[in-house]
Design brief:
single chain; mainly alpha; 0% strand
Amino acid sequence: MPEKKDIQVILSEMVRRMNDHGRRLRAMEEKTSLLESRVSSLQDMILKNNEKAKKNVKEVEDEFEKINTTLMKIDNDITKISKNMERFARKSDLKEVENIISLYNPLKTSFITKEELKRILTKGE
């Protein structure tokens, strides 16, 4: 049978190892708790950033929608202006009107008066 001293040594070694394992276990639990805390804060930060990103995407989509609406209005206005331009007078039309007006302009053209016409007609008879 083993001696009392050997049993005492074995028991003290077992107690020492149990205490050592207990310390390691507590250290691991603390590290695990710290990691869980960090993971939780990271999750919170990711959720906040995700919400901000969704908000920013929504704002950008709204801006694109406004720009699209504005572009459609501009396109419609350009179409209306283009149709109205077809009714405008062309340069050649204005030049023709200018020539007609210059023909009838009494300051540039010599017209005959009634008296002059009568005199010419009476002399010719």
